[in-house]
């Protein structure tokens, strides 16, 4: 079938070409802009780095400094009024369908660029071409698509232009903070959209990223797929990338029954995972017992997630209602108090020597409560350590 371009492909071949072109753009965003530039989780060979930068100029008109600054500010101000694109403060519809507008508005904020855009490329080609003539790349891409594929190329170009604004600015920034599952109890509302990070190169695993923002690997569970990480590992094998940071691996060792500095290090590096475990291993079992009562069921079933989720903010009426409900149960009040104390112990600002002593006391006191779920969690916590082999 002839579509008046240099290429004479079948309709299915044009679809494949479109998917390949847009996927290269996705890979450029997640590997170069996100993991390499914004978080410095890996280094890239100059040729690979420049290819990604050139491709993004052709297909998105993205300026590296702007993208990095907006993303870093998102982490620094997450879920607040200063967050450039939080659906928790701006509404899911506005972020999902107007994410590009929110991004462009923040790019015009000179203070954001100055504070959060440091360390991005400032070479001759960036200053004289990529940043100064950002739309020239789009015109060149349109010309290439039209020459190679004729009028179908214009359609392909339109899809390329919509791909990143929808998937990155809309889906990741919107749905990634609104719907999905959570592996970690981070203080923000981040979610993993799906465990199969293929379509958006691994960015679907957004809660994992917020838990370990400087990790080059976004997958955490064995059944999660991070396609961007697979590409990074391939580049590493070819000597074209060097991973600097990845989420630490931890394990429970039954034979380890004393809290030491290794325990402190492992808990501190995995504090969001520990809080998630506390919710599922301690609070939920105690809740199941308390829900047997009619009055407890009336309150606690309604507010169950408030006791295990770190991202929820309760108003004064909700907090009073929850406090009244918790006050009706001695066991539940105890485990909630121990969770608050554990959160203080896991805050990074504390001196590790002091943290070690207080953590030892926390475990001893937890075991002395007589609450089986809390006692078992404290025993497991003693065996928490870093995995030595990858």
Overview of the structural elements:
- The protein is mostly helical and 390 residues long.
- The chain has 2 domains: 11-243, no CATH class; 251-386, no CATH class.
- It is 61% helix and 4% strand.
- The chain has 18 helices and 6 strands.
- The protein has helices spanning 11-38, 46-59, 64-76, 87-90, 92-107, 110-116, 124-130, 134-149, 151-174, 206-211, 227-237, 261-269, 271-290, 294-300, 316-327, 330-345, 352-368, 372-382; strands at 42-44, 196-197, 225-226, 241-243, 250-252, 384-386.
- Strands 1-4 form a two-stranded antiparallel ribbon. It has a two-stranded parallel ribbon with strand order 2-3. Strands 5-6 form a two-stranded antiparallel sheet.
- Helix 17 runs antiparallel to helix 18 (372-382).
- The protein starts with 10 loop residues before the first helix and ends with a strand.
- The model has no long low-confidence stretch (mean pLDDT 92).
Short description:
The chain contains 18 helices and six strands.
Report the uncertain regions.
none
- Give the class from helix and strand content and strand pairing: mainly alpha
SSE succession = HEHHHHHHHHEHEHEEHHHHHHHE
**Overall shape:** elongated
Taking the sheet with the most strands, its summary is: 2 strands, antiparallel
Task: Please give the share of residues in helix.
Answer: 55-70%
DSSP helix count?
18
Distance between the termini: 51 Å
Strand order of the largest sheet: 1-4
Our count of domains comes out at 2
- CA radius of gyration: 24 Å
Q: Mean pLDDT, nearest integer? A: 92
Strand percent estimate: under 5%
């Amino acid at each position: 079938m002839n579509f008046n371009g240099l290429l004479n492909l079948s309709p299915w071949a044009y679809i494949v070409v479109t998917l390949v072109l847009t996927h290269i753009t996705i890979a450029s965003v997640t590997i170069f802009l996100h993991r390499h530039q914004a978080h410095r989780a890996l280094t890239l060979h100059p040729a690979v780095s420049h290819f990604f930068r050139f491709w993004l100029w052709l297909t998105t008109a993205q300026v590296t400094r702007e993208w990095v600054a907006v993303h870093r500010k998102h982490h620094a101000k997450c879920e607040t009024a200063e967050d450039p694109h939080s659906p928790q403060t701006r509404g899911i519809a506005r972020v999902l369908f107007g994410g590009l507008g929110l991004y462009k508005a923040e790019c015009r904020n000179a203070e954001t660029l100055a504070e959060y855009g440091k360390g991005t490329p400032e070479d001759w080609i960036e200053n004289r071409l990529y940043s100064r003539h950002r739309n020239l790349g789009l015109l060149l891409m349109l010309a290439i698509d039209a020459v190679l594929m004729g009028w179908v190329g214009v359609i392909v170009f339109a899809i390329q232009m919509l791909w990143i604004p929808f998937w990155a600015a809309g889906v990741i920034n919107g749905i990634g903070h609104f719907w999905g599952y959570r592996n970690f109890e981070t203080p923000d509302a981040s979610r993993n959209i799906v465990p199969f990070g293929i379509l958006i190169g691994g960015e679907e695993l957004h809660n994992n990223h917020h838990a370990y923002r400087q990790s080059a690997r976004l997958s955490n569970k064995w059944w999660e797929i991070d396609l961007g990480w697979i590409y990074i590992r391939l580049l590493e094998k070819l000597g074209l990338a060097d991973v600097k940071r990845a989420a630490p691996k931890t394990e429970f060792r039954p034979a380890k029954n004393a809290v030491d500095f290794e325990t402190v290090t492992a808990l501190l590096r995995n504090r969001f995972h520990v809080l998630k475990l506390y919710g599922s291993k301690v609070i939920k079992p105690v809740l199941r017992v308390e829900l047997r009562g009619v009055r407890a069921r009336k309150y606690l079933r309604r507010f169950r997630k408030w006791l295990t989720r770190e991202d929820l903010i309760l108003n004064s009426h909700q907090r009073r209602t929850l406090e009244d409900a918790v006050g009706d149960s001695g066991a539940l009040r105890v485990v909630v108090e121990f969770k608050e104390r554990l959160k203080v112990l896991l805050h990074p600002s504390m001196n590790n020597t002091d943290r070690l002593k207080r953590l030892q006391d926390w475990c001893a006191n937890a075991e002395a409560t007589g609450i089986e779920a809390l006692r078992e969690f404290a025993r497991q916590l003693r065996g928490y350590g870093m995995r030595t082999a990858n």
